[in-house]
Amino acid sequence: MTDRLELLLTLAFFLDFLVGDPRSWWHPVQSIGSFASFVERVLRSMEWLPLKQAGVVAVVLVVGGSAVVTAGVLDLAFSLHPVVGTVLTIVTMYYTLATKDLADHAGRVFEALRAGDVQLGRERVAMMVGRDTALLDETGVAQAATESVAENCVDGVTAPLFYALLFGPVGAVAYKAANTLDSMFGYKNERYLEFGWAAARFDDLLNYLPSRLTVLAIFGAAKVSGMRSGEVFHAVALTAKRHASPNAGFPEAAFAGALGVRFGGPRWYEGERRDLPWLGIAEERCSPEVLRKAVSLMLVSSGLFLLGGIMLKVVL
């Protein structure tokens, strides 16, 4: 399978681009999430096991288990028939990508704002972000959606592509399992501060290279799309490390530079105000048109990331 992995991944990428994730379909991440919840309950019931160590065990069990199950299912599929194995390989990698899903979510916010329905925009952007959206104006809604597109470009697209190129469908699923754990356990609150520590740190580790390589893809996409490519690296160099996350600031600052806007600033979470540092070097605020451009930038960046990865593998 290795000699044709690039072709299968390309087919998976285009399948995701065309079909996305229909909500009526079963999704493997749902099963990973259910297994993670089961593992958490079991480990928390072991009162003799310190929470921090329990969190490490959870990461090993969920990420390792997801990888082992994926490898076993694919081996079984290939033993039945090469065509069955090939199709399942494509579908497995397709399920780890969220290009169209991300574009569709942002597109629905854009359509609401373009129609002048800010309330509908608030409702739709609430499905993309964790901040309070009830009091956002048009600019706030557009900024929330644009920031989400920028941040999730890595988690939802380029990082799964990166690990699929390196380790095939098993690598992509293992990454998705780690990312799912971070979204479930990676909170700095009383419940997860210790138990979720390993999940958050492991996700940071896995995203370190993809987040930085994505900046190159964003630069290329801005260049071919006629956006502000010259400001991408400048914005990253000056502002990326202001972000609380060791990785998220890189794609966000790159997007801000390419779009000529700034991200960050004050926002509310569960009624509590937080003042986030500004990312980007421009003073302009987001708008519905900026959101539309961000979706285009994400799509082109994703395609260039895949193309660049395939070319690099061929050369090496």
Q: What does this molecule look like?
A:
- By secondary structure, the chain is mainly alpha-helical.
- The protein has one domain (2-315).
- Helix content is 71%, strand content 5%.
- The protein contains eleven helices and two strands, in the order H-H-H-H-H-H-H-H-H-H-E-E-H.
- The protein has helices spanning 5-19, 28-45, 51-80, 82-95, 99-114, 118-125, 138-185, 197-225, 232-239, 249-259, 288-315; strands at residues 263-269, 272-279.
- Strand 1 (263-269) and strand 2 (272-279) form a beta hairpin.
- The model has no long low-confidence stretch (mean pLDDT 94).
Round the Cα radius of gyration to an integer and report it: 20 Å
Q: Name the helix and strand elements from N-terminus to C-terminus, one letter apiece.
A: HHHHHHHHHHEEH
Task: Detail the poorly predicted runs.
Answer: none
What is the overall number of helices?
Answer: 11
Mean pLDDT: 94
Q: Count the beta strands.
A: 2
